[in-house]
Write a structure and sequence with these properties.
CATH superfamily of one domain: Histidine kinase-like ATPase, C-terminal domain
Radius of gyration: 36 Å
CATH architecture of one domain: 2-Layer Sandwich
CATH topology of one domain: Heat Shock Protein 90
Number of strands: 7
Helix content: over 70%
Distance between the termini: 91 Å
Largest sheet: 5 strands, mixed
Shape: elongated
Length: about 725
């Protein structure tokens, strides 16, 4: 027997007695269920079904609602003006039917689809107005099961508009609605979306707990698809703040989830995993992860993504000194770049070629490649920093110190710009947090306003409903609002208290530093004053000794004032450097000869070991390096008692030179070592010592060394005191 089409079946059932009305409704639902909104011919199928229902307006209204859903779905693929207008035409047809039949629920759903259509067309302003003034009241009155979905959509719209007050309000309302319905799947999705938006605003601190909460719900629901997305977002957030181990943990959790996930997304998580391993300099793990990423991207798929991942692999191979394999990949990417004609990809490719040629010491091709990369201005700040850093290294190794220094200066400018942007982002983040707190404070008021609008519409549309229902609703609403407002006020007071404590701590730290500096200046001044008065009154038995003391105190005073001046220049980014090629052995021997009498006059043994090639040199400002050495040696002399030991070692490690200064002074607690180079920091072990300094000397040393592309760190010395290690890159041959 030939099968009967859904449309014909509907016609047959429509002609049946009233007793078959339920069966007719079921038949319509079955016919709709057989149509996928994603099918290209879905609209034609629905219109054919609609044509068969001319005599049944109630069923026709349901079918028109489904037609709007189909048209909205198709707009994802055909986003033109005509497609968006088609939804509005269907809505007007539906209104004609629903107004006569008073099908308020269907009309409320249709109105929501119409608002969503406005959003998709790019008219978010109109979409939000419709949602607030029409959709929310109608849905609350006639389709409350849709309320959470409507609030979620409103949250999407205001998030795009970066209206943080309403953003917070609608996401909270959506979460409350889904929670009240025990719809934890939708609740988890709302939290995930909110966390993603917070992350896009740069508010990592607020995004992390929201995303973690979303992942907990998704884990309980066994929703691996959604959990994968959330884990990926968490991993990228932790990577962004430099917590690479935590990032790796979430990336690995994501890729370990069972179930079918789009291959490109699998590739994305493995690429992110490789990036984190790369930052940790764990290149074997990075290479394994990036090969896994490549296994999920067929060569015929997204060519740009493929090229990006291949460039990542080339970078890893260079770090592993597998130059042949790296060159093969770069050549492959060059072919893809020529095919795609993407300047952004060309820029990345040329920079990778420059790094490859630098690694194999092919300096002329390296120059050509880095200049090609610099000529393309399509990059973001991080890429620009990478380009200028690479250029400086290439020209330094080529012996072109003038250009090396020019690119280094440009690099420093960009780094300062980045630091400034970070500061600005921090200010924006703080403002966002303030806005969100204000939004939380005002949520009760906004809720009340919405509730008043909704109640007004409900009263107009249903005046004949029982009065007790509204009375109960109003009482419950007021109780809820009072409770909500009380809780928010309590939260506000708690946050304000925490902020006050933080501000007080910062002010206390600042005041402590100012007091220390004042003490450092006052101490030598007092000693100078006392000795001058004593000399004036003829009370000094040994004038020569008194003059020595005065000279020493004047030196201490001058040093403190100069430290403050240099800190000021450093923080303004105006401390001048005059870099030049500096052969290390004769310079260091001269420095040792200058300080040996001073060290030995303090009763300390002074051992040195200069393990450097005769030609070993750096690009540096000699006076600034001498200043660093002087600060560290004088710092050791200040705290090392008699009998004491001081050791200075200079040695090479490949293209790195290391200076090590060790003393036998009272040991600094290990937990304080990482703070020694902070602005104004003083170890607790030196508190109360008459010889303590301003806490600026080591900070100045760190800034000077970093300006020379070097590093400095502190550790415990085998002599019983402190060990300061300085590393600098050697100049190229």
């Amino acid at each position: 027997m030939k099968a009967v089409s859904p449309a014909i079946l509907l016609l047959l059932t429509l002609a049946a007695p009233p007793a078959l009305a339920e069966h007719t409704q079921q038949t319509l639902q079955q016919a709709i269920a057989n149509i996928s909104t994603k099918d290209e011919d879905a609209e034609q199928k629905v219109r054919a079904l609609l044509a068969s229902l001319e005599q049944e307006p109630a069923l026709a209204a349901q079918t028109l609602l489904f037609l709007m859903k189909v048209q909205l779905s198709q707009n994802h693929y055909n986003s033109d003006e005509e497609s968006y207008q088609a939804v509005e035409v269907s809505y007007r047809q539906l209104v004609k039917l629903t107004d006569k039949l008073q099908l308020n629920k269907i009309q409320a759903e249709a109105l929501f689809i119409l608002a969503e259509n406005k959003r998709k067309s790019g008219d978010s302003k109109t979409a939000l107005k419709m949602l607030e003034e029409q959709v929310i009241p109608q849905v609350k009155a006639y389709a409350p099961e849709l309320l959470g979905t409507v609030y979620k959509q409103a949250a999407h719209v205001v998030a795009i508009q970066t209206d943080l007050e309403k953003f917070s309000l609608y996401f909270d309302l959506a979460a409350e609605s889904f929670k009240a319905e025990n719809n934890f799947a939708e609740l988890a999705e709302v939290l995930s979306i909110k966390g993603s938006y917070l992350a896009s605003y740069g508010n990592v601190k607020l995004a992390l707990p929201v995303l973690i909460s979303a992942s907990q719900y998704q884990l309980e629901l066994d929703d691996n698809q959604a959990l994968f997305t959330t884990y990926l977002a968490l991993g990228r957030l932790y990577h962004e703040i430099g917590n690479y181990r935590q990032a790796i943990d979430y990336f690995e959790k994501g890729q370990a989830l069972p179930g079918q996930v789009v291959k490109v997304r699998r590739a994305s998580v493995h690429f992110s995993l490789a990036y984190s391993y790369y930052e940790l300099q764990e290149y074997d793990q990075a290479l394994a992860a990036i090969d896994k990423a490549l296994s999920f991207i067929p060569t015929s798929a997204n060519r740009y993504n493929l090229a990006t991942i291949l460039l990542g692999k080339a970078s890893i191979l260079v770090k592993q000194q597998n130059f042949a394999a790296s060159l093969d990949i770069l050549t492959q990417v060059r072919a893809i770049a020529a095919e795609l004609k993407s300047e952004r990809l060309d820029e990345d490719l040329q920079l990778n070629f420059a790094k490859y040629h630098l690694a194999v010491k092919a300096l002329e091709p390296a120059k050509t490649a880095v200049q090609a990369a610099l000529a393309l201005e399509t990059s973001h700040l991080a890429m620009s920093i990478d380009k200028y850093e690479t250029a400086s290294k290439i020209y330094k190794q080529a012996g072109d110190f003038k250009n090396a220094w020019l690119y280094l200066q440009k690099l420093r400018e960009l780094e300062l710009e980045k630091a400034k942007m970070k500061d600005e982002e921090h200010v924006v983040q703080q403002q966002n947090e303030i806005n969100l707190l204000n939004a939380q404070k005002n949520t009760a008021l906004v809720k009340q306003q919405l509730l008043e609008k909704q109640n007004q519409v409900q009263l107009q549309q249903a005046e004949q409903q029982q009065l007790w229902f509204y009375g109960s609703l109003l009482v419950l609403s007021l109780v809820g609002l009072f409770s909500f407002f009380y809780l928010r006020q309590s939260q506000k007071k708690r946050i304000a208290l925490e902020q006050s404590k933080l501000i007080m701590a910062v002010m206390e730290q600042k005041n402590h530093f100012i007091a220390n500096v004042a003490h450092d200046l006052k101490n030598p001044l007092t000693v100078i004053q006392v000795h001058l008065e004593a000399l004036k009154d003829g009370m000094v038995k040994n004038p020569d000794k008194a003059h020595d003391i005065l000279e020493q105190r004047l030196t201490d005073l001058t040093t403190s004032i100069d430290d403050l001046r240099q800190v000021s220049l450093l923080e303004m980014g105006t401390l001048a450097l005059s870099p030049q090629p500096l052969v290390l052995r004769p310079w260091l021997q001269q420095e040792i000869a200058a300080y040996r009498p001073l060290v030995e006059s303090k009763g300390l043994s002074f051992k040195t070991a200069v393990q450097l090639d005769r030609a070993a040199s750096v690009i540096a400002d000699p006076s600034r390096l001498s200043q660093v050495l002087a600060n560290i040696i004088k710092n050791s002399l200040r705290y090392t008692g008699q009998p004491g030991k001081l050791t200075l070692i200079a040695r090479q490690h490949g293209q790195i030179v290391e200076f090590i200064i060790k003393d036998s002074a009272p040991a600094v607690p290990e937990n304080e070592l990482e703070n020694l180079f902070d602005h104004g920091y003083r170890s607790e072990s030196t508190q109360g010592m008459s010889t303590q300094g301003s806490g600026l000397g080591l900070y100045i040393c760190k800034e000077i060394i970093q300006a020379h592309q070097g590093s400095v760190r502190a550790s415990l010395s085998n002599l019983g005191g402190l060990c300061i290690s300085i590393t600098l890159p050697l100049a190229g041959e």
